[in-house]
Design goal:
- The protein is an alpha+beta fold.
- It has two domains: about 240 residues, Triger factor/SurA peptide-binding fold; about 90 residues, Chitinase A, domain 3.
- About 50% of the residues lie in helices and about 10% in strands.
- The protein is built from 16 helices and nine strands.
- The strands form three sheets. Strands 5-4-7-6 form a four-stranded antiparallel beta sheet, with helices on both faces. A three-stranded antiparallel beta sheet has the order 2-1-9. It has a two-stranded antiparallel ribbon with strand order 3-8.
- α2 crosses α15 and α11 packs across α15.
- It is elongated and about 90 Å long.
- The two termini are about 35 Å apart.
Amino acid sequence: MVEFVRFVSAFFGQLRAGHIKHALSFVSLVVFIGGMILGCGNGGEDAERTTQRSLSDQMESVGSQETPHSDDSALSPQVVAVVNEEEIMAAELADRLHRAIREGDVASPPDEYTLNRLRETALTELIEKRLIAQKAKEQNISVSEEEFQQLVQHIQNEYGGADIRNILAEQGKSYDVWASAQQEALLLEKLVDTNMASMIAVTPEEVRQYYEKNKEKYDHPAQIRASQILTYDQSVAQKAHQEIQSGMDFGKVAEKYSESADAKDGGDLGFFARGVMPPEFDSVIFSLKMGEVSDIVKTPYGYQIFKLTGQREAHRISFEEAKEQIENLLKKRKRMIAVDLWLVELRDNAKILLNHDVVKRVN
């Protein structure tokens, strides 16, 4: 659930992964769902085509439908669109556009082409948000405070327990805007689950077929685990090596003498395959026997001592081990496509009128 919510809420201003103090950054305007979802299923070229699709193209099918206003002239100059008799005000579009310019990677002021693209995308987003809210009201679907707080807690746990309010405040972002985006994403997930449940379901046969077609993804090469001591002074390295030879624990000696960042972990480098570490490391570590400590090695990084602490044979993850992960992956893919199709259906069945002249004047 959380992965899907975080994917969708990117379209409302989702988190970006990064350093904890710079982790939350609102995503600049993109088409609310279309481009990225189709991109996940059909490749980047389809995604770009969808993202660049104009709002007028998206609304082609509603042009002949009856609308609450027969033409643009019947609309107030403060209204940019009417969605099933619900107005979207020019001030709303301006606010979303200004936020996109502020937070997006665009020149300020943007050139005419960029401004038109951002304006069009912002209006598409506002229209689809209206459609989602209307459908939720119609089907009596909502997001409880408990559901929202569970999501907040999960996200905060992923960022080391840091308070989201503090992180957002450091970045000059609004918690209220962020919270609204998360709630809207949760709401969309519940709507898609309700309306597209059969499309999202994944069968055991599909899981098995995916595994059989992608077995190479589950092949893991042989790996070893090692620890190191790194010093820039040969005499220090010699002293450390003597203490190890006298029976002192390698990890304790690493904590005492090593100048590497992993010293606090006893010099542990974790598991890795051949070719991951620098060649100077591989040539020494892969020649060691289990539990053996190397001589002092002069490398481009300093004077180093290595110890082999673990080994893993090359293996393939079994279907039983992989099936839960595969099922989640397939559900996520299906949900992305379901969101796109459902939003297309909402648009096709909606009565939408655009006030083109007013839209063009919003900047």
